Amino acid sequence: MVKLLSAMSVACAVVLAACGSGGGASVVVAPVTPPVPPQAEIKPTPVTPVPVLPLTMLHTQGTKWLKADGSQVALKGTNLGNWLINEFWMMGQGSAGIDDQCKLEANFDSRFGYAERQRLMQLLRDNWITTRDWDQMQKFGLNVVRLPFIYSVVEDEMNPRHLRADAWRYLDDAIAQAEKRGMYVILDLHGAVGAQGWEQHSGCANKNLYWSTPAYQDRTVWLWQQVAGRYKDRAAVAGYSVLNEPWGTTADNLAAVVKTLYTAIRAVDPNHVVILPGHNSGNITAYGKPSDQGMSNVAFEMHFYPGLFGWGKTGLQVHKDWLTCSGGSNSGVCEWDNKIKAVDTAFFIGETQPWMGMGLDLGGQVGRASFDTYAKYGWATTAWSWKVVSNGGGQGNGSWGFVTNAAGAAVPAIDFTKAPIADIENLFKLFGTQAYEVHQPLQDWMTSSTAPQPFR
């Protein structure tokens, strides 16, 4: 306001000088446009946490996710990546060619024996996610977690079609921890036996034997029937994501195999949402309209990464274009809204990453805006990922994680082919004790009663 009054005073001085300059020469005074005052900065507004209420069984009807009483629910959450299936970039490792879980386990078998491998993997899992993580998730206001797991967490890989002695240790615990905090769990088979794609995140890079091996597909049917049979009455389980990013086959074959998994699950569990994965080309049309195929209580799943993996440049513009449909009514999220309405099926964005590299405050705003936009369309969303650590630590310009190791809380990169077993144990224990750095602006915006406006 002070700047505006000052500018008006200068304008008046110019006009008065012209009027009193004497009769002869005329003075032309250019019109003065007052400067536009800056828009008020919008800041997150803290709210009182909502009490944890008992969870009710969820289902889908048409495009909506619904509670047992028929009211709509907005699912907003995270993925527990690198816990029950390892991705080495998420824990600051990957040297000496040990860059996926299958290679790590084979290395442990060769160096230390199978029993010791089992002990080391348990040590890693017991420390990657602990009670402090569950408590911190609650502080972000999340109400769902997607739980990626590899098949061998449940099935005894040495004795196929038999459960491990501790088959339910981690899934049971995750569901109990989430339920206690008012959060749902989506169980996600991230790594099927044989691997359903070529990427390391299926557990075994460059394998992709699932689609060409009927025995592997049969074992996956068996696996899902064990899981669904155990949790068929658990309201805290929101649904079953039957195959993560199954890019190793055609869209048509994917649809056929997933229909078999759906039928197998329904034979033991009529209650839970079955989540149908889209193909990497963005193709869900190979399924047809699920209700026309005899499928009910289902949702489609896709993963969206604006600004990453060749999808434009990381920054505000790519998120604005995506979330506001700046290319027209059949672009961005509008295109997917049209697709989902056409098949009259609920939608689940199983992975997305809207804040990485955006700067902390802007990243927090875009993160919240992304969740809000997806919720407006009725879509469930879980961002990737809860915890990602680096060798040096710190959120920097925005890491992949809701939390990371604090700046200076270093994570050593070790050579698993040579490291003494004590060094491996110390690394795995470190994951459970090292200081965290929370993405604070993201937490503030996720729990704010005031919505950000990053695209204004």
Please characterize this protein's 3D structure.
It is built from twelve helices and twelve strands. The longest helix has 18 residues, at 2-19. The protein has 456 residues and is an alpha/beta fold. An eight-stranded parallel beta barrel has the order 3-4-5-6-7-8-9-10. The protein has a two-stranded antiparallel ribbon with strand order 1-2. A two-stranded antiparallel sheet has the order 11-12. The radius of gyration is 26 Å and the shape is globular. It has a single domain (63-446), classed as Alpha-Beta Barrel (TIM Barrel), CATH 3.20.20. Helix 7 (251-266) links the parallel strand 6 and strand 7. Residues 1-38 have low confidence and may be disordered. InterPro entries: GH, Glyco_hydro_5, Glycosyl_hydrolase_5. This is Cellulase family glycosylhydrolase. One of its GO terms (molecular function) is beta-glucosidase activity. Residues 1-17 form the signal peptide. Residues 131-387 form the Glycoside hydrolase family domain.
